[in-house]
């Protein structure tokens, strides 16, 4: 009910404020017997953490994860897995200047309206710092999915108006070789250049992260409400700054006729496939065994290094001054978050479907 | 877990197949003491039902709702409200020709893959007929929301490439006066004409439904996972044929800079407002008191009146022949479904927030 | 949240008032592919229904079940199973005399205090009539459990102070051959005689139902909160008039020493067993493969055929007069309800555990 | 699904093994704005912790709680409250001798059967050490309940066959003045003496904890499944070693007639009361405003200081030798756990009911 729990079987509870002692997560419902490599968790956290490159915020946070339970002699035991990340940089800043201010397009006002109280330091719970806990949980989900041959990955496909040109072949190896996490090296340069320009202006810019799930078997997703793409959509929209979600043909599919849009079935080497994949790997809310792909729209970050007019708690006009560290574009750091959320959704639905398979009459 | 339950407090369970005896819904958690007008439930069902105009499927279904419990002497009692709609047209057709076929871009294959068995008559549970139960529940939610001054409405904003021109003033009165449910009379004519053409071709076309929520107080939505727009997104994406969701500036916001995108706060007549509303009424996942608006992309209906190549259960090539009744465009009938799902989400979150307000220290 | 939903995977939602049009249930999460015999559902309903013998209430209710969805060509499809039982006797009585009265030890006052409104006809939702929906759902659960070799049964072990003597061998065949559903023929006669005496006095009497689960594999139950016996306890305590629950040695185990109480493990024919079973088949909240047994205490029915002092809604003293039909002892009709609730809990946990077995690394 | 989450609104997730790095809890759904005194949390933990008196286990654990989130400037913020208790004594012991053994009436065998793997050190997750996390969460619930005038307390009412004589007045002040936590000073001495004797024998003994809730308003509890006493029952039965639960007249009520058992209503000073309270403050699953009381049966602790026959993982006979530290009777330390679980259930239902009150039409 409090909104900090996600998933039905592989269920995560996250906690923590941007400038409190720590953030973290409990996973309840992790299947037993899986070997977990803590380095892979740390690696994903490193992909999300601040200070990783010149085009992201320079907050100093090592984001070192500590596992407190649920893993014994290297393997999951079926009991809750708790992970904690202590906030290193929690006391470095004076937040009294924004204590009573409502920063434009931040959650200051809405948290105040909702709870009547808020931890104003760095956005408190509304900070994207919270997503580190998701990345840690997602890194465990990824390792379990890998055992079933399922992979999730994501990449930056658009920054501002700079996008990967249509029909460009996607090169997964390129993604981690550029700070934007674009899947095309040429576009990556243009994106990085744009972000640097935007930063110089003290401004920010939006972008798109494309997510892909490979190796997903047919049968995942529970009609009618927990359709696979509906749960993916909720997962992505729950990420800070995400404003839109589409899968398969998405919004572009609107203009097509049914005769153009339908994917035809074939049998290939004993496996049912479709000759096209406008369905994005999901039909009737259930995976059909083809690749799943989707796109997430991220708005420009609300924190800008410019003065903005606003009001304070008493309704009086104030000037909000941008200062300190910020992300000129959220998208490069959003990539591992999108992957993590996709992994959490897919694993949860895989477990749900494996139960159905195991128990059918 | 089965995926047929939606909502946390105002929780609905739906049931029923397209050609079984009945479909229906139980609402658990409806607050007590509300007068409910059954005619308003029927009115919304009539807006969704087949045969309502020349541009929708001509299946004969009166969709007459029967209330079995939870309302006593005209008022809700706090106990479960069960509603049933008997299928009138359930036996009129022979479905043996599609018994073993997988229709392109339908859920035949995925249901078979998931459950190993399926009710193939008219799509069974995967039929959009199921949404009638949502509309019935949503009609009760709307009546309760009205008591708090909250209204949800929706309209067709695009069919194929025909869309309401930018900056056209929205006239709510126009919506129910044209069979497309477009909010602009001139565009409505063009849309209707397009749908008639498409139908003549034995084809189908996609579209966009825009949803609006008026009068929503600040404070609704639960960070971090149950953000208001994340739950709206899941709700809309769970509607048959929905392929994308965006709110506020949505995908278009990507190209803006933060300085262009941020909404500035002002106090007006003692109420906090924003001078623009690119946030779509939601900031940090919580409503801010401004109008909430969002857009849902619907793909072209998969059932077309043309022959298509496919395979059957044994993997053999077959020709799927289109015949009988179908919707050339799902959007006109999707409008009341979008409204219903919006009402269900908003009421659920209103109850969640009213609890917080009632219990804060 | 509304409290009318039970179970995690095999999840039931019930609805209906004693004198409304109908009661019923939706099962969401029933595994697909199981043949279901509707006669077995009806048979269990007949064991619960009024008028079945001279020692139960004579209300006329055939309790005929109608299946509305989820079963196709005799087999479960994995989609929701809805069942409805129409109330035949709903209009036969004038309830205006109790409209504003609070009957002693009934739920009239508490429903009024909770909801501010109540359907006063025959107790409305608080009537034990609601349990028919549980029995119908439980009858499906039993059929699925039978496929895994698991059986639930129950019997009356005590009425007032008449109880089956210690160490009496339990004869399952005897249970349905006497109207009390006692597992010992001699004791059954004494119980029946007591109930007839009590009825002549216009009074009521309590009793104990013992429940047994045979064939349950080791591994069911989820620590730490959803321990198998904790969920069984909640299930039984949720039955009208149930005031206590104990399993294994129960309250009697208090007086034993650990050295007397511990069950020793042995291996027998390759299977781990315990030489005694004071644990009642459950250790650490998880089934150990031995028989599960438990006892449920039922208080005397609150409706008596005597005048009682009480108050009305305005706090004024009134005399509540007993009249009409009533059960002198709830226990005979509670037996199939206990079985049904046990089957629902065990099946739910079986599915949970089968998922773990199917997904472990 | 994993079973480590409890509650609907005030929802706790616990984690941790007996000999892992830490145990802890996240509370999601704590209402905002409450001042929380950390000393009161620690005080309850001190009442539960090992080593507190001569009649409990001498394991050295300070059980120092650390709050990681959700409380800002001393008040709850509505965001998740995480609390961690590091295990001080985690490495002090060699557990290799029980690595492959199944200790009688412990959860060693059932965890192995369920998960195929287990942390055997000190029982791992099955250790009652886990309940410290519940006590910490319960201590916060108690502080919030106090603001509504609701108090929960518990006491030892029976150890072995030594019980507080009937009609003995309960003196709450006595409870914390004796190591047994008995509410009667004379009986306390007899109980303590019995426990010392039992310990000398290297044996253990069971007991009863009585729980009481004062000041609970009418209206708490959600029919039909989430009846207040059903949720209390599940909560208590989920505590390690609890074998039975009864409320109000409980098992003793069986032998009464309805005319003897019914509680008559009266109005006193404008408040509805009952002249007797065999209902234990709950009617139809909903609180009626009278005191709530219940009794929990605890079996003798399974760990005894005697040799016992058992088997190991391969089914071979072994001798399990008792050594080290143990509780001769769990009841004194169970008292704060019963209180905590009662507070968690009552607060959860209070929030549920306050929502209904705040939203009724």
Question: Can you describe what's shown?
Answer:
The structure is a homotetramer of 361-residue chains. In chain A, 27% of the residues lie in helices and 22% in strands. By secondary structure, chain A is of the alpha+beta class. The first copy, chain A, has a single domain, classed as Chorismate synthase, AroC fold (4-Layer Sandwich). In chain A, the strands form 6 sheets. Chain A has a 5-stranded antiparallel sheet with strand order 1-2-3-7-4, covered by helices on one side. In chain A, a hairpin with a 4-residue loop joins strand 1 and strand 2. In chain A, helix 1 crosses helix 3. The longest helix of chain A has 29 residues. The model of chain A has no long low-confidence stretch (mean pLDDT 96). Chains in contact: A-B, A-C, A-D, B-C, B-D, C-D. At the A-B interface, strand 1, helix 2, helix 6, strand 11 and helix 7 of A face strand 1, helix 2, helix 6, strand 11 and helix 7 of B.
CATH topology of chain A: Chorismate synthase, AroC fold
Largest interface: A-B, 111 and 111 residues
Distance between the termini of chain A: 34 Å
Strand content of chain A: 15-25%
Please provide the count of β strands of chain A. Answer: 18
Question: With helices defined by DSSP (H or I, 4 residues minimum), what is the helix count of chain A?
Answer: 8
Topology (elements, then pairings):
The structure is a homotetramer of 361-residue chains.
Chain A (H helix, E strand, L loop, with lengths): L4 E2 L4 E6 L5 E7 L9 H11 L16 E3 L3 E2 L2 E2 L4 E6 L21 H8 L15 H17 L3 E9 L2 E2 L8 H4 L9 H16 L6 E8 L13 H10 L4 E6 L10 H4 L3 E4 L2 E4 L7 E2 L2 E2 L4 E7 L9 E4 L5 E4 L10 H29 L2
Antiparallel strand pairs in A: 1-2, 2-3, 3-7, 4-7, 5-6, 8-9, 8-10, 10-16, 11-16, 12-13, 14-15, 17-18
Helix pairs in contact in A: 1-3, 1-8, 3-8, 6-8
């Amino acid at each position: 009910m409090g909104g900090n729990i996600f998933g039905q079987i592989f269920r995560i509870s996250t906690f923590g404020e941007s400038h409190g002692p720590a953030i973290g997560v409990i996973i309840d419902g992790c299947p037993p017997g899986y070997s977990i490599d803590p380095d892979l968790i740390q690696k994903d956290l490193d992909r999300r953490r601040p200070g990783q490159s010149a085009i992201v915020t320079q907050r100093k946070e090592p984001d070192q994860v500590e596992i407190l339970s649920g893993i014994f002699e290297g393997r999951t035991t079926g009991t809750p897995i708790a992970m904690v990340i202590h906030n290193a940089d929690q006391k470095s800043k004076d937040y009294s200047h924004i204590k009573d201010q409502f920063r434009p397009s931040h959650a200051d006002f809405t948290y105040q309206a909702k709870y009547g109280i808020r931890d104003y330091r760095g956005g408190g719970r509304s900070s994207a710092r919270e997503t580190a806990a998701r990345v840690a949980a997602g890194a465990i989900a990824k390792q379990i999915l890998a055992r079933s041959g399922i992979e999730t990955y994501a990449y930056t496909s658009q920054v501002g108006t700079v996008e990967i040109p249509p029909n460009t072949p996607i090169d997964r190896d390129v993604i981690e070789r550029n700070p934007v996490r674009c899947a095309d090296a040429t576009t990556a340069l243009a994106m990085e250049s744009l972000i640097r320009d935007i930063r110089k202006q003290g401004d920010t810019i939006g972008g798109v992260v494309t997510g892909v799930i490979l190796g997903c078997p047919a049968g995942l997703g529970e009609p009618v409400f927990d359709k696979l793409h509906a749960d993916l959509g909720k997962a992505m929209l729950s990420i800070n700054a995400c404003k839109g979600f589409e899968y398969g043909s998405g919004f572009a599919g609107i203009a097509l006729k049914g005769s153009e849009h339908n994917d035809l079935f074939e049998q290939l080497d004993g496996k049912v496939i479709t000759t096209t994949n406008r369905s994005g790997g999901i039909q009737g809310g259930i995976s059909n065994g083809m690749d799943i792909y989707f796109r997430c729209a991220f708005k420009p970050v609300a924190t800008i290094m410019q003065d903005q007019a606003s009001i304070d708690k008493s309704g009086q006009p104030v000037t909000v001054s941008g200062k300190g560290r910020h992300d000129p574009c959220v998208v490069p750091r959003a990539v591992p978050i999108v992957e993590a959320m996709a992994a959490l959704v897919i694993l949860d639905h895989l477990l749900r479907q494996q139960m159905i398979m195991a128990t059918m009459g």
